[in-house]
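job 3f2a | input accepted
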Amino acid sequence: MMRSPRIMSRNMGMTVEVTSGVMATLLQEAEREHPHECCGLLLGRGESIDRAVPAANVHRDPASHFEIDPAALIAAHKIQRAGGKELLGYYHSHPLGPAVPSATDRQQSSGDGRIWAIVANGSVGWWRDTASGFTALPLRLVEG
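job 3f2a | predicted structure (144 res):
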């Protein structure tokens, strides 16, 4: 998989800015899809996420795994190439676990520098997928 130079060159410890609307969407989607894992895309610019786009979880076992619908990923990449919002990362929920990367998440990570939001028990954990594993991200919540 080809990695985006823009993603890879980011300061990996930088604070991520997230709108209150994105946070609300993540929590609502996790609740709506429970007991299955929800999943989707995080869009914005730089280190600012201002849109969460729900996607179908196409994994054969959605109660304990997630796989973002490839059509949603392709659409997001096309929008980005056309000058639209950047695909900054992904989100999914853990219906039965904490808001931290699971063993499966660690196995599936690519080290591409993208952001992962993990929703569990009414909270959201924010992580950067780095070459050396997941790193917790500081968050700044903004209105929007």
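job 3f2a | The mean pLDDT is 91.
job 3f2a | closed
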